[in-house]
Specification:
The structure holds 2 protein chains of 2 kinds. By secondary structure, chain A is of the alpha/beta class. Chain A is built from 12 helices and 13 strands. Helices cover 37% and strands 21% of the residues of chain B. In chain B, helix 9 links the parallel strand 13 and strand 14. In chain B, helix 5 crosses helix 10, helix 8 packs across helix 9 and helix 8 crosses helix 13. The longest helix of chain B has 19 residues. The two termini of chain B are 40 Å apart. Classes of the chains: A alpha/beta, B alpha/beta. Chains A and B meet through helix 3, helix 6, helix 7 and helix 8 of A and helix 2 and helix 6 of B.
């Protein structure tokens, strides 16, 4: 039997439409998009169209779209390139409290270059602590990175507020928004967020893996991270991945088109998860920051007491339901994710957090069956334990 | 951070210049402006545009911030203000104004004291207060408990605007600059001779700014130059397409013309003669598509051959007025503008254009018209023109993203 795939925040299947759009660029228009002959021009024109598709999906201009080899690379370019281009203005960097490793660790890599890196805080409820941030922003702050939607909990951070706090206090700072989990789930808008850069990834929205984009507001200084040819306004050297870029363009357009309907369905599905958990002693949804911050309903993170999440996940996998473990505590440092602490979970509890993530293609029937399986597994594991 | 979180603005107030608004021009001016606003913003959101009392109200379904950015590229617009709507009731207006002001203060460094005022205008005379009364009603209510503001009617840096209409009132603080100029299309159509260089796209942009709708013609000397050179010109048209609703590019074959001139005309005159042929071809196209003038990127003295004498020789071949917006610009000024309008990066991509094909070793500096005419007597000018026009390729470019 086909598995029920509920790990869409990790990756999604490529849609048939995206695959069909990509196909001609493998075997027909395979020229190097920088080449002067017709096959090069055809590839370059295909990228132009993809650039416009991505631009429309994020409310930007086509020339503001820089294609990269995925979300991680886009985040690296924003963080390293943004900070380095401003090093004469200061060396102070702030990253959000629950950033993806591609932002968090990249920022830490700047420490070796003489930057001072701070991590923003959550308040007692698990919402971004804007007072703390306002207080820490300085004249010499050159980069602030705040994700839009948490990959772990679906928490939606107030990036617009962050951008404005930064503008008023740190006139030289670049504001980066990692919107990888936001595409197709929230309206992405360079103009509304007021940020300088915004990253997206193809494979989270039924596009191919290994392709993403950094949207760079016109006039924003970024130092390149990869060096070589002049591709992508000199910001990302290397022959572009034409088929992947074409796929990303189509996937972004489709994700934006299906967004309102998908999000409405996610909310209904999420309610069914909540209802199911309410019948189980001690189990509940993990919603840090709510209600001050919204939760993007497509990421359903839950705490289920009893056996560790890994055991429950193996049981689910065996019965065809694929999900993932939530943010556990750091194995080395034993530091618990601050969002979990705010949600009232300790280090021990953090190993009992599961994440189910939905896609536009997830059906009601799949959710119903997944919940049946989850409930059956829970009953079974309860017996095992006692 | 206890300030009431206020959502996105509901609409954008658009103010436009008054200069061209005399008499019957006004209607067509506004009509063109609305059409251009739609072309610029509809690729990212459906929207509703209303004309009211000498300004426009643009109500996007969503992405109001992106819409405001795009409006800043629409010629004819003086300023835009993202605004929040509220029922036209003094108490409610004051409430929303308070939230809008709290939101606006996020943009100001803490600690500074900002000179502030309220400035109302009232379209609905049935509203129970005059503008001044409304200012006085709202000001104390928004200032209560707010720090960092001091009322200063004369030197206010933060102006809380209120516009009251019959069915709704609008509150705003930001006034973002538009590009000025006149709406594209109000002054008729022109045809711009576009090379891959820095100047001609800037010249086209300046013509658009003064209300011209600009179509383009470029000259292509295949197989001496390739597809990528043509694409570079298409890319330039596309980069300029964010400033007008639609653009058309004519690509005219130019190889035969250049070969004929190379083979039959005095070598120093080649460049001037190429350019005379371009003016002829462009004039013919322009008349055919009802363009009223030609636009070129010519600039006095920019290269040794861009002299008044040569400009005279070249211009004499045109059948229409030739606009040369950059004639008296310094190169640096043109480059600055090219950067600002987003064409510089494309223009500096190294791709040959037809001007670089068959360059004479020693071009004439002070050309004489009678020599040009004499040289052309040896050519089948009419035949060359006819055959080039017959080979025209048309590339239509919609507004960026449409």
């Amino acid at each position: 039997m086909e598995p029920i795939y509920l790990d869409n925040a990790a990756s999604t299947p490529v849609s048939p439409a995206v695959r069909a759009a990509m196909a001609p660029y493998y075997e027909e228009s395979y020229g190097n998009p920088s080449a002067a002959h017709r096959l090069g021009v055809a590839a370059s024109e295909a990228m132009d169209r993809a650039r416009e598709q991505v631009a429309r999906a994020v409310g930007a201009r086509a020339k503001e779209v820089v294609f990269t080899a995925g979300g991680t690379e886009a985040n690296n370019l924003a963080v390293l390139g943004g900070a380095r281009a401003r090093r004469d203005r200061g060396r102070h960097v702030i990253v959000g409290p629950t950033e993806h490793a591609s932002v968090r660790k990249t920022a830490l890599a700047l420490v070796d270059e003489g930057f001072e890196v701070e991590t923003a805080r959550l308040d007692a409820q698990g919402a971004l602590d804007l007072d703390w941030l306002a207080d820490r922003l300085r004249e010499d702050t050159v980069l602030v990175a705040q994700m839009l939607v948490s990959n772990e909990f679906g928490s939606v951070y107030p990036v617009r507020r962050v951008a404005r706090l930064v503008r008023a206090r740190s006139p030289h700072a670049l504001v980066h928004v990692d919107a990888v989990q936001g595409l197709g789930k929230r309206e992405l808008s360079l103009g509304e967020f007021g940020c300088d850069t915004l990253s997206i990834s193809g494979h989270k929205v039924h596009g191919p893996k290994g392709v993403g984009a950094l949207v760079v507001r016109e006039g924003t200084a970024i130092a390149p991270v990869t060096h070589g040819g002049p591709q992508e306004h000199g910001l990302r050297a290397g022959t572009q991945n034409t088929p992947g870029i074409v796929g990303l363009g189509r996937a972004a357009e489709d994700a934006e088109a299906t967004r309102p309907a998908a999000v409405a369905r996610f909310a209904e599905m999420r309610a069914r998860f909540a209802e199911s958990l309410s019948r189980m002693d001690g189990a509940r949804l993990v919603e840090p920051g709510a209600p001050a911050q919204e939760i993007m309903p497509g990421i359903v993170t839950m705490f289920v007491p009893g056996v560790p999440a890994s055991v429950r996940l193996h049981h689910l996998d065996e019965r065809g339901v694929l999900a993932s473990a939530g943010a556990a505590c750091n194995a080395k440092t034993k530091a618990v994710n601050p969002a979990l602490l705010a949600a009232g979970l300790d280090a021990d509890d953090s190993r009992r957090v599961l994440r189910f993530s939905l896609a536009a293609t997830t059906t009601d029937d799949e959710v119903a069956r997944a919940l049946e399986v989850l409930e059956a597994v829970n009953r079974e594991l309860e017996t095992v334990q006692s | 951070m206890t300030a009431t979180e206020i959502g996105s603005p509901e609409m954008v107030l658009v103010r436009y210049g008054e200069l061209a608004l005399k008499g019957k021009n006004r209607g067509s001016f506004e009509h063109a402006l609305i059409r251009n606003i739609r072309a610029a913003c509809e690729p990212i959101t459906p929207l509703f545009v209303e004309r009211r009392r000498g300004r426009l109200t643009v109500v996007p379904e969503r992405r109001v911030g992106d819409v405001a950015r795009r409006l800043q590229d629409v010629f004819g617009i003086k300023t835009v203000s993202p605004a929040w709507g509220v029922e036209p009731d003094p108490e409610r207006i004051a409430q929303v104004a308070r939230a809008v002001l709290a939101d606006a203060l996020l943009d100001h460094p803490p600690g500074a004291e900002i000179p502030f005022r309220v400035q109302s205008s009232r379209g609905d005379k049935a509203f129970p207060m005059t503008s001044v009364e409304l200012d006085r009603f709202v000001a104390p209510r928004v200032l209560e408990g707010t720090t960092g503001l001091k009322v200063d009617l004369k030197h206010a840096r933060l102006v809380l605007g209120i516009e009251v209409r019959t069915e709704r009132a609008y509150v705003f603080v930001r006034r973002l600059p538009g590009p000025g100029g006149l709406p594209v299309g109000t002054l008729g159509r022109v045809l711009c001779l576009l090379s891959g260089g820095i100047d001609s796209p800037v010249a086209a942009w300046l013509a658009m700014k003064r209300g011209c709708s600009v179509n383009f013609v470029t000259f292509h000397s295949a197989p001496y130059i390739g597809e990528a050179s043509k694409k570079k010109v298409v890319d330039l048209v596309r980069a300029l397409s964010r400033y007008q609703p639609k653009s058309r590019l004519y690509v005219l074959p130019f190889t035969e013309v250049q070969e004929a001139i190379r083979d039959h005309a005095p070598s120093p005159y080649r460049t001037v003669l190429y350019r005379r042929m371009m003016q002829r071809l462009a004039s013919r196209l322009a008349l055919r598509e009802k363009s009223l003038a030609l636009v070129t990127g010519e600039s006095l003295g920019q290269v040794a051959s861009q002299t008044l004498e040569n400009m005279t020789c070249i211009g004499a071949a045109a059948d229409l007025p030739v606009l040369r917006p950059l004639a008296c610009y310094d190169k640096e000024e043109a480059i600055d503008l090219a950067r600002k309008i987003g064409t510089f990066e494309l223009s500096t991509i190294p791709e040959p254009d037809c001007c670089t094909v068959f360059m004479p070793p020693k071009p004439i500096i002070k050309g004489r018209l009678e020599v040009c005419e004499q040289a052309e007597a040896a050519l089948d000018v009419e035949g060359l023109v006819e055959r080039s026009l017959a080979g025209v390729e048309v590339v239509d470019v919609a507004h960026e993203g449409a």
